[in-house]
Design goal:
Layout lengths: L1 H51 L2 E6 L1 H9 L28 H6 L2 E9 L9 H18 L4 E3 L3 H9 L3 E8 L8 H9 L2 E5 L28 H13 L2 E3 L5 H10 L4 E6 L13 H10 L2 E4 L3 H4 L7 H15 L4 E3 L19 H9 L7 H28 L11 H4 L13
Parallel strand pairs: 1-2, 2-4, 3-4, 4-5, 5-6, 6-7, 7-8, 8-9
Length: about 425
């Protein structure tokens, strides 16, 4: 009798447990469906915003990968196809970009990096940079129905209206100008619209971020006199000053020198990850005064200070920069194709809408207009202000700066300079 009662009791417990499990699974299914529906609703809002406002990314290193993988030969480079299916791109952790995924990610404008490595400084950096500019221009010409080379803020918006990818050129590293303002002017004439003042090496006129690391000694302590002339000439040309990769004193000197807003094309918040590549809060506050822009990078070492990061980690950096500098001073500069690690949820250029959708989940903080500013309005505003400063300086009669760098600044550092007369 007791055995029968125990058996019935256990059966009853089993039925109760089964009912609980079924109800729990049903509840989880309902919650998942609601979450999925909510995500899709946010994604539709994002799509609407990005149809109206161009999504502009501040930095992509695809041109250097083309040099690495294809020696700058474009005959076999099938940019219009899914590169995840084509060797060597399919097996490379450095590859995140093709036209199909850019369209899926609703990217409307991309700054392509014309990069020469630091090892080329004082050697053939100018030639390498010219070759990368040429590569970008040739790539755009191969896809006239999908891409257009643009050099103005208005042209970004015009390209967006036509449904083409506005392609802009950014030079990554001040060593690329070979300590010559003439070279800087020619790069501008060829379409370059920003110059990153340093890469991960000092130039004879500016310190890079490496000098901020423990045990390192500054070379200059910021910008030299010639470095301030580089910034002034960029203002005169209408070329955006980019401070990603530079030391904190160089940031401050450039902010004190520039008459136009500056950008960080691919950097994040130092307060969250204390990489020397990131922007400290006191500089973020100066950027707000300058009316400039920090375009948040996605590289995990800049986001989580480790090898792993998530989309939510990137959101934390965006929110921090917004909190310190303001909504008008934050943008996107992922750095795809220049990194071999990416955050979970932001695996390639197709994933930008999911980032914006995640931001919209915080309805108390983010509105559609805020998303529009982050996506592209802020960069267009900065670009227009840079152009306005150029026009003002021209109206004031400012002439090209014709000063050379001091011989003392390059003594022992220049291996192949012409020693004859300059004129």
């Amino acid at each position: 009798m007791r055995r029968r009662k125990r058996t019935e009791f256990f059966k009853l417990c089993g039925l109760c447990l089964t009912t609980i499990i079924i109800n729990f699974l049903s509840l989880m299914c309902t919650l998942n469906q609601a979450t999925a529906l909510e995500l899709e609703e946010r994604m539709e809002i994002v799509r609407k915003v990005l149809r109206e406002v161009p999504l502009i990314d501040g930095h992509n290193d695809l041109p250097w990968n083309i040099r690495k993988f294809s020696k700058n030969q474009l005959r076999e480079f099938r940019f219009g196809e899914d590169l995840r299916l084509i060797s060597p791109w399919s097996t490379s952790p450095w590859s995140h970009t093709d036209l199909r995924r850019l369209k899926e990610g609703m990217v409307s404008a991309q700054f392509w990096s014309a990069y020469a490595p630091c090892s080329s400084q004082h050697l053939d950096a100018v030639q390498l940079t010219l070759e990368q500019i040429d590569l970008i221009r040739r790539l755009v010409l191969l896809y006239p129905q999908h891409m257009s080379l643009v050099t103005t803020a208005d042209a970004i918006e015009e390209s967006h209206r036509k449904g083409r990818l506005a392609s802009l050129i950014g030079i990554e590293g001040g060593h690329s100008i070979g300590t010559s303002l003439s070279v800087l002017r020619m790069f501008y004439a060829l379409g370059a619209r920003y110059l990153t003042l340093t890469h991960t090496c000092n130039t004879p006129w500016a310190d890079c971020c490496k000098v901020d690391e423990p045990g390192q000694v500054p070379h200059i302590g910021g910008l030299s006199h010639f470095g301030t002339l580089v910034v002034a000439e960029m203002n005169r040309l209408g070329m955006i000053v980019d401070l990603s990769h530079v030391s904190v004193p160089t940031m401050l000197d450039a902010l004190a020198t520039s008459k136009a807003p500056i950008i960080f094309s691919h950097s994040s918040a130092h307060a969250i990850c204390n990489s020397s590549r990131n922007v400290p809060d006191h500089v973020l506050k100066r950027i707000a005064v300058n009316q400039g822009l920090v375009m948040v990078a996605f590289y995990p070492h800049f986001i989580s200070c480790g090898e792993k990061a998530t989309l939510k980690d990137v959101v934390a950096h965006i929110n921090h920069i917004r909190d310190v500098a303001g909504i008008d001073h934050v943008g996107i500069g992922a750095g795809y194709d220049g990194v071999n690690l990416v955050p979970k949820g932001l695996e390639d250029v197709s994933r930008y809408p999911y980032l914006f959708a995640e931001l919209l989940a915080d309805a108390d903080r983010w509105t559609e207009e805020d998303i529009a500013k982050l996506a592209g309005k802020n960069l267009i505003r900065v670009f227009r202000q840079v152009e306005q400063v150029r026009d003002q300086l021209e109206a004031q009669g400012m002439l090209p700066i014709d000063q050379d760098i001091s011989p003392e600044d390059i003594l022992g550092r220049s291996y192949c300079r012409f020693s004859g007369p300059r004129t």
